[in-house]
Write a structure and sequence with these properties.
The complex is a heterotrimer of chains A (388), B (357) and C (286). Chain B is an all-alpha fold. Chain B contains 17 helices and no strands. The radius of gyration of chain B is 21 Å and the shape is globular. The two termini of chain B are 32 Å apart. Chain C has one domain: ABC transporter involved in vitamin B12 uptake, BtuC (Orthogonal Bundle), CATH 1.10.3470. In chain C, strands 1-2 form a two-stranded antiparallel sheet. In chain C, 58% of the residues are buried. The chains are: A alpha/beta (388), B mainly alpha (357), C mainly alpha (286).
Chain lengths: 388, 357, 286
């Protein structure tokens, strides 16, 4: 144990002075930068739980190397994310970093990973542009346009002529509202107004009232999952559903982890998303079961799956390179990779390094006394519509 | 009774806080204050030495120095002029974005992306904002000042998030490429250049602040802090002095912001955010205000504690940090510097204590 | 239009109940207790636990939250806060931020980081028409409770023996003590009531404001805004300030959604520039 540390220390010093690429080593380290404190803490928990679960189920040996996960808390502040990334790369000699709960946090590491040639696996953040900012970004989560377009189509098909969108005012929110508007208006609908609530906003009543007074056929919602609960409470409380406004959104607003807490009032709500804890596949059943066993009181959501798949992508890439931890080779190995995840089939687009996956249209229903998003329609292998 | 009356007037007139000499003229006091002491050499020596001792913590050290510089800027207003502020993050952010924009438009090569020029721009922009807003803090109680400065910071944050075309909105400002420092050293991944750059700039700023507070100007600030009415009564231009120190403090905060942008290659709205202002004030109080070193030492102690506990328990480090703060207030006066001064005093057991005000 | 006014008033009322305890401690003891939100969080989380885990009625949660937070307040006052009355404001700030950190991490540890959601009893859900405005029943309920509390508080302070002792202690603690008023006891009781009100506010707000471990820090700014605009040391000042801010916030977001978020800050800065002592202070003596 001590000897390994010493060896690593020497390796570190040698690499420091020569700035040489990482030498072959027994242990391969992976950094996981998650937001574990502050308002976004809930998402960090899911991610860490997902990644740990993957390692628990699949062992920690890949291509003859031992995998070690190093978890850091960035508190949701971009310059701390960046510092952790830099320290993980320089000190811990990680082969890859992963995590990133919010878009600005991912963007902050772009210069570091480009310079260091270390892959960064995005497990949550969902703005389209992220993967364009560095050739070392690989995304296994989703992009907001990818999720918003199917629901725009669905709602247009189901008779909505006018719509209002309400999103959180930050990168992914803007992406979501723009993608929704684009596709909805292509299908002959009209977006009456695009409302943006401050990200740290606890009180949506004014925005919802405005949406209600505009009398649209549909209301499209997106907020980051940790705030979804209170938004949905207020949507119900404000009587938008009684006013015959079809409330739809991305799956963030009926987040699996919180759905039961929101209560029966959201029954029947239709959303589009790439993952539901109720997804019908043997793999997902096992995933949900093991996840609940390892984390009492939590139910896996799309962030947990992101953590799980992020580790999978790394394992597979390392397998492919036969244990070679060169960052560029790892990214090459991940390009075009295709595998089954608890969410369904997932492919890393070789051109954009972004995720291509099925997006499901789901409805909130009660199953075995719990609320679930039950999938009833699917758009196959959706690419992000904004990437060229 | 008569014995008390017989005391020489000079001793009675000497302020109790002054050093042990019976009568101190202002000039002598300033001279005494501006002499470099062994512990100051020790502090900067340690900062320098940390490069060799912790070669793989350079980024953390740079971050600490930047934070310390921000806290130092608050010390100027709080510790010397008695102005409470909860909005220093505004100046930090203005500086960060100013330096970031300059570097971005220079695109890593042109004259605009020179880091030193960037710092000048950062300090200038923040100083300007500081000057304009300084008139808001001249009136009112501590609480009013706290809230006005906080309000200004929140408004600046809102402007930064709204002005997407300039600042990149909530995604932050990307593509910040500073050219090499003095055309020679580029910012490397190990943070070596960043470390030296930040250390030297911080030291220069510190040296400037040290000169400032040990000047007649600094002394007049202490007088204003002690009793603004009396200061005004003896003909001191109180408002002008406060405006001046507030502006200087804002410029230094902006400089710190510029340093952060240049060494991290991006600027994001959380550089303006409330927690930035609150953390820096917290760190200053933690370290002890009114010593110039409080901010720096507070930043070192706070961040090391946070990093250390955070590595043990990434989820619940906040609890232990909170506990330390509570205990510190309950059992120690004037932060860590106070603790150290106390310890030193006990150790030496000398009666002529209180060399540092 | 009327709906907006109504929502704003409800929001403002809630803010008032949450913040009034802080106003009293600040005005009375000149003590900055930034950890005030932690008491509100205690009340909110107690409600969550009682309703969601034990299935106790929401109506029982309200008094329980008050008592729980009040007891918590008095215990902390006697053991910790008491020792800080003679320290500087900055020490108090550092101390109470430390308490916030501890409360945040402790709640996170005990209850998890995700948002807690309270499901109200069915009769409080839904909406009714009043004066042509479509308003939520629960908001009506909040306004009623907070209105009653305000009247009760005002009555206690202005009309009762306790109230006059309290006012005497605020105006001049030394003289009050000299007249045989148990200032220390009054302080402790007031602190308890203030904390209790915060707990009640937390319970009432649990379903409107989101309850998560970062609650005390998130709302600290709002409390301080209420106090600085309203002025400490009375309760009518913060009351009107809360209503004003609630209405301005909701109306701002409704009518100009693009900038609505920071109208509240602009108002605060404007008020403080022209009236540094706050909008509704009795006199400018402080």
């Amino acid at each position: 144990m001590l000897r390994r540390h010493l060896l690593l220390g020497f390796a570190g010093l040698a690499a420091m002075s020569a700035a040489a690429p990482v030498a072959a080593q027994e242990t391969v380290k992976v950094g996981l930068i998650a937001t574990l404190t502050g308002p976004q803490a809930a998402s960090g928990r899911q991610k860490v739980a997902g990644a740990k679960l993957y390692m628990a189920l699949n062992g920690n040996m890949v291509a003859g190397k031992k995998i070690e996960l190093i978890i850091k808390d960035d508190t949701g502040v971009a310059d701390i994310t960046r510092r952790h990334a830099q320290e993980l790369i320089v000190n811990d000699k990680v082969a890859a970093i992963s995590g990133f709960s919010l878009t600005p946090l991912a963007l902050a590491v772009a210069p570091v990973i480009t310079q260091a040639k270390i892959p960064a696996i995005i497990m949550t953040a969902g703005t389209s542009i992220i993967t364009e900012r560095s050739p070392y970004f690989v995304r296994v989560s989703f992009t907001l346009p990818q999720q918003s377009v199917p629901i725009a189509e669905w709602i247009a098909k189901n008779g909505a002529k006018t719509a209002v969108s309400l999103v959180s005012d930050y990168g992914p929110g803007i992406d979501a509202q723009d993608a929704f508007k684009m596709r909805f208006e292509e299908k002959g609908g009209k977006v009456l107004e695009q409302l943006k609530a401050p990200l740290a906003n606890p009180e949506f009543s004014a925005f919802l009232q405005r949406a209600k007074d505009l009398k649209p056929d549909a209301l499209f919602l997106f907020v980051p999952a940790p705030t979804a609960g209170s938004l949905m409470k207020q949507v119900i409380d404000r009587g938008l559903i009684e006013a015959n406004i079809k409330v739809v959104g991305t799956g963030d607003i009926t987040d699996d982890d919180q759905l039961n807490g929101i209560g029966d009032s959201v029954l029947g709500l239709v959303t589009s998303h790439f993952y539901s804890a109720a997804h019908d596949s043997p793999m997902n059943k096992k995933f949900v079961e093991e996840f609940k066993k390892a984390n009492p009181g939590m139910r896996p959501n799309f962030i947990g799956v992101g953590g799980y798949d992020g580790m999978h992508a790394f394992y597979q890439a390392l397998e492919k390179t036969k244990g070679d931890t060169d960052g560029t080779k790892l990214v090459e190995a991940m390009k075009g990779m295709s595998f089954e995840s608890p969410r369904g089939m997932l492919t890393i687009d070789p051109a954009t390094r972004d995720v291509v996956q099925d997006v499901y249209i789901r409805k909130v229903e009660k199953k075995d006394g719990e609320l679930y998003n039950i999938e009833f329609d699917v758009v196959k292998q959706v690419k992000d519509p904004i990437h060229k | 009774m008569s014995a008390i009356d017989a005391k020489p007037p000079a001793e009675a007139a000497a302020p109790p806080a002054a050093s042990g000499a019976p009568a101190v003229s202002p000039a002598a006091r300033l001279l005494a204050g501006s002499r470099w002491r062994w512990y100051e050499f020790a502090f900067w020596g340690l900062a320098l030495g940390s490069y060799f001792v912790f070669p793989n913590k350079l980024m953390l050290i740079s971050e600490i120095l930047i934070l310390g510089l921000l806290a130092l800027s608050i010390d100027l207003t709080l510790g010397y002029a008695g102005l409470v502020t909860l909005g220093q993050g505004a100046f930090f952010g203005v500086g960060a974005y100013a330096a970031g924009l300059a570097a971005k438009y220079g695109a890593g090569a042109g004259p605009w992306s020179d880091p030193l020029l960037g710092l000048v721009i950062a300090a200038g922009a923040a100083g300007l904002v500081g000057f304009v807003t300084s008139f808001l803090v001249l009136r009112g109680s501590d609480l009013t000042r706290l809230m006005v400065t906080l309000g200004v910071a929140l408004i600046v944050e809102e402007i930064v998030t709204q002005a997407k075309s300039v600042t990149g909105g909530s995604d932050g400002l990307q593509g910040v490429m500073s050219s090499n420092v003095l055309g020679m050293w580029s910012f490397d991944l190990y943070g070596k250049t960043a470390f030296w750059y930040v250390l030297i700039v911080t030291f220069v700023c510190f040296w400037f602040c040290r000169r400032l507070v040990n000047s007649p100007f600094g002394l007049s600030l202490l007088a204003i802090k002690g009793n603004p009415l009396r200061a005004r009564a003896i003909g001191m231009p109180v408002n002008a002095r406060l405006v001046a120190i507030y502006t200087i403090s804002a410029a230094i905060a902006g400089l710190a912001g510029g340093l952060l942008t240049q060494t991290t290659q991006f600027a994001s709205p959380d550089m303006v955010a409330f927690h930035r202002s609150a953390d820096s004030l917290l760190i200053l109080i933690f370290g002890g205000s009114g010593h110039l070193y409080g901010g720096l030492i507070g930043a070192v102690a706070f961040r090391i504690m946070q990093d250390f506990i955070g590595n043990i328990t990434p989820q619940y480090w906040l609890f232990w940090v909170g506990l330390v703060l509570v205990l510190l207030v309950l059992f120690v006066r004037n932060g860590i510097v106070g603790l150290m001064a106390n310890g030193w005093r006990r150790l030496t057991q000398k009666s002529h204590e209180g060399k540092n005000p | 239009m009327l709906t907006i006014l109504f929502d704003g008033v409800a929001y403002g009322m809630l803010l008032f109940v949450l913040a009034v305890g802080l106003c009293i401690t600040l005005g009375l003891m000149n003590f900055i207790n930034l950890a005030h939100g932690a008491f509100a969080m205690a009340g909110g989380y107690l409600t969550v636990v009682m309703m969601n885990r034990m299935g106790i009625s929401f109506y029982w949660c309200l008094p329980a939250a008050f008592i729980f937070a009040a007891v918590l307040g008095v215990v902390l006052e006697r053991t910790l806060y008491r020792r800080l009355y003679d320290k500087t404001h900055l020490d108090q700030v550092l101390f109470s931020i430390g308490l916030i950190f501890m409360a945040t991490a402790a709640v996170d540890y005990a209850m998890g980081a995700s948002q807690q959601i309270v499901n109200l009893p069915p009769e409080l859900n839904g909406r009714v028409e009043i004066l042509g405005a479509n308003v939520g029943v629960y908001r009506l309920f909040v306004i009623a409770i907070c209105g009653l509390l305000t009247i009760a508080l005002q009555y206690v302070i202005a009309r009762t023996r306790f109230g006059s002792r309290l006012r005497a202690s605020v105006d001049d603690g030394r003289v009050a003590r000299g007249l045989g008023i148990d200032v220390t006891g009054i302080f402790a009781l007031t602190f308890a009531v203030g904390s209790g009100l915060a707990g009640l506010g937390g319970a009432l707000g649990a379903s409107i404001l989101s309850m998560d471990p970062s609650f005390p820090l998130k709302y600290m700014i709002y409390f301080l805004i209420v106090i600085s605009v309203g002025g400490a040391s009375t309760i009518t000042g913060p009351f009107f300030a809360s209503i004003l801010l609630g209405v301005a916030d909701v109306a701002g977001k409704y009518f100009i959604p693009a900038v609505g978020g920071f109208i509240i800050y602009t108002i605060m800065v404007a008020v403080l520039i022209f009236r540094p002592q706050g909008l509704f202070t009795r006199s400018a003596k402080r």
